[in-house]
Specification:
It is built from 18 helices and eight strands. Helices cover 40% and strands 11% of the residues. The N and C termini lie far apart (122 Å). Strand 2 and strand 3 form a beta hairpin. The strands form two sheets. Strands 1, 2, 3, 4, 5 and 6 form a six-stranded mixed β-sheet that branches. The protein has a two-stranded antiparallel sheet with strand order 7-8. The chain has 496 residues and is of the alpha/beta class. The chain is elongated and about 130 Å long. Helix 12 packs parallel to helix 13.
Length: 496
């Protein structure tokens, strides 16, 4: 006989206070009703939806996709317009780098005197011009016949002629002969050298184009290394340059006197025989600097010019490009696709006769293809971005109004390219000098640096300081300081 003993534990009774916790709700499904049967089965036995068949749609931004999302591969994020156009501001301020180049008097002039716009000398004192000395040695070793006294000095004189807006070389030589040219002598290597008209001709004809291009790109690289510019926003446009030739063909040869040039027209307006200068400017807020340049005959279509310019630029540039702005002359699907393949957004105006493209009307004259811009950008933001394109018009205007470069005094596409590179180098020299000397208010001032330090006499200094309320320097003290500055610069030039 077996006896099993059990010990029963006290039961636990759970009580709920219905004043605070409502009684459970009962949901009754009538299983004889097919509709209620299916509803009850879904609640008791939930199931996931089956995956859709076919290729998965591309949704990069959590929204409806557009053609822009498919063209730019691997683009996981989108930059907002406010961040895209945000750049640092530059004002007039004392800089540690500027103290290395300026003495006490110059520091007061640059940072305290309101109407002072800088000395022309500082465009070259703040730069290393050994590039021209290097190429002079290379050309001499190659045995190239040249009658140029000094590439270094000819570069300074040509920058001065362009800066003063003197159209031809004979007029510039007469001005140098009548006025006192000794003010520019402290900048030269060959003392007491005044170039003739033949010297300028030899400077352009006997110096290779690579010399000018290499120096221009070295200045662009210097701007990038100093983090003054970036290739985030680029603006493209063309400018017509009239060649030194007749607008009509010769009756004997049936050719223009400049065989490389072409007949230019724009909006049914006759421009003449010359070239189209295709230029890319980097927009960086207060700083707008040229970064790339190509030259074409004036009879080449703008669409082809834009395509060739951007194709060569993408091969040369190492930094990514976010946005490219252009006018209606560059609009084509081929050009927009080229930009998209390199990860750039093309905001290019379209013509009114295009009907089959996905165009959005921003104003009475501005049409933009929506397939090549992010769909999250509103029309107001696109209108604001396209408004930046007018900056390049202001850059081109001073080439004509200040530098008088509408017509060149030379022929040939290589010679015209050298002349345009000289203009762009002069603009870059002014930009770098403004940054080094702490004069952010002089950016985009094409008439800045229009005085010579040697011509700024002690009497002019005293008069300038009196107008600003300074009574610290006397006439003799100022003159002695200026003489000491000249001796120090001659010593520094001798060490170089």
């Amino acid at each position: 006989m077996f006896i099993l003993k059990y010990y029963r534990k006290p039961t636990i009774v759970q009580h709920q206070i219905l004043d605070y916790i409502e009684p459970p709700k009962k949901i009754i499904f009538d299983m004889s009703n097919p509709a209620e049967y299916r509803r009850g089965r879904k609640i008791l036995f939930p199931q996931k939806r089956p995956k859709k068949r076919g290729r998965k749609k591309l949704r990069l931004f959590g929204r409806a996709t557009c053609l822009f999302d498919y063209l730019i591969k691997g683009k996981s994020s989108e930059m907002s317009v406010r961040y895209l156009i945000r750049f640092p501001r530059y004002l007039r301020a004392r800089s540690e780098e500027g103290k290395k180049y300026l003495d006490q008097i110059d520091a007061v002039l640059y940072w305290e005197v309101q109407n002072f716009t800088g000395f022309y000398d500082d465009l070259f004192f703040t730069q290393d011009l050994s590039h021209w000395d290097k190429w002079e040695v290379i050309l001499e070793k190659q045995g190239i016949l040249r009658n140029i006294p000094c590439l270094h000095d000819m570069f300074i004189y040509e920058c001065l002629r362009i800066h003063l807006g003197i159209k031809n070389y004979s007029q510039f030589w007469r001005i140098l002969s009548i006025l006192n040219p000794t003010a520019i002598f402290p900048l030269l290597k060959c003392l007491n050298f005044v170039p003739t008209v033949q010297d300028f001709c030899d400077f352009y004809h006997n110096t290779p184009l690579d010399v000018f291009k290499e120096y221009f790109f070295s200045l662009v690289k210097q701007l990038v290394n100093r983090r003054m510019i970036s290739y985030r926003i680029l603006i493209w446009d063309c400018q017509f340059v009239h060649s030194n030739s007749s607008d009509y063909k010769s009756s004997k040869s049936q050719y223009y006197s400049d065989k490389d040039a072409g007949l230019g027209r724009h909006n049914n307006k006759f421009l003449g025989v010359g070239y189209m200068v295709s230029t890319l400017y980097a927009y960086c807020g207060d700083i707008i600097a040229p970064v790339f340049c190509l030259h074409f005959p004036a009879n080449v279509n703008d669409k082809k010019i834009f395509y060739e310019t951007m194709k060569y630029f993408f091969k040369w540039a190492k930094q990514p490009v976010k946005l490219v702005l252009g006018d209606r002359g560059a609009y084509s699907l081929k050009n927009l696709q080229l930009l998209a393949q390199h990860g750039a957004i093309g905001v290019i105006g379209a013509t009114k006769n295009i009907k089959k493209h996905n165009l959005v009307k921003l104003s009475s004259t501005i049409l933009i293809n929506r397939d090549f811009v992010p769909s999250s950008w509103s029309n107001d933001e696109l209108r604001e971005l396209y408004g930046l394109r007018t900056c390049i018009e202001r850059q081109f205007s001073h080439n004509i109004l200040v530098y008088n470069a509408r017509r060149v005094n030379i022929r040939g596409i290589a010679e015209v390219a050298k002349h345009r590179y000289m203009i762009l180098c002069l603009d870059l020299l002014k930009t770098i000098a403004c940054h080094k000397l702490g004069r952010g208010d002089l950016f985009q001032h094409s008439t800045a640096f229009s005085q010579m330090r040697s011509g700024y006499t002690a009497q002019m200094l005293r008069m300038t300081f009196d107008l600003q309320g300074y009574k610290l320097l006397g006439h003799e003290t100022t003159q002695n300081i200026r003489q000491k500055q000249k001796r120090d610069r001659h010593k520094q030039r001798g060490k170089r």
